[in-house]
Design a protein that fits this description.
elongated, alpha+beta, 5-stranded mixed beta sheet
Length: 120
């Protein structure tokens, strides 16, 4: 487990070479997710560059981010873009939005339980 993140992060690269820079960027983005939700169990990031035939235009990068919470998993459609950094940004923006919604739902559930206890 990474010393910075409080949860394991799995990075899978398909048809790409591993680099410290890319791994570090993904780990930083995952670490920032931990600030939005304190109970993330793990984060899986898959980055793919689909293979194409020669003379075809280069395919877009696909970035798939899956975040597991207690009792729930957040996973969206893989985000595609011709530039890797843009695909990463798109994917993590959507995951952050889903995490914020999860936190809101959890807080509302806690408020409802407190209201029921106070009324009883």
């Amino acid at each position: 487990m990474d010393a910075k993140a409080m949860f394991p992060t799995q990075i899978t690269l398909r048809n790409l070479r591993s680099s410290e820079e890319l791994s570090g960027r993904v780990r930083d983005l995952c670490e920032k997710l931990g600030h939005l939700h304190p109970r993330i169990l793990n984060c899986r990031v898959a980055i793919e560059l689909p293979l194409v035939r020669r003379r075809a235009p280069p395919p877009p990068y696909l970035v798939d981010v899956q975040v597991r919470l207690p009792g729930r998993e957040i996973g969206l459609e893989p985000q595609a873009d011709a530039e890797l950094d843009a695909a990463l940004r798109k994917a993590f923006v959507l995951v952050r939005r889903q995490l914020r919604e999860a936190v809101t739902v959890e807080r509302e559930a806690i408020r409802d339980r407190i209201d029921v206890k106070l009324k009883a």
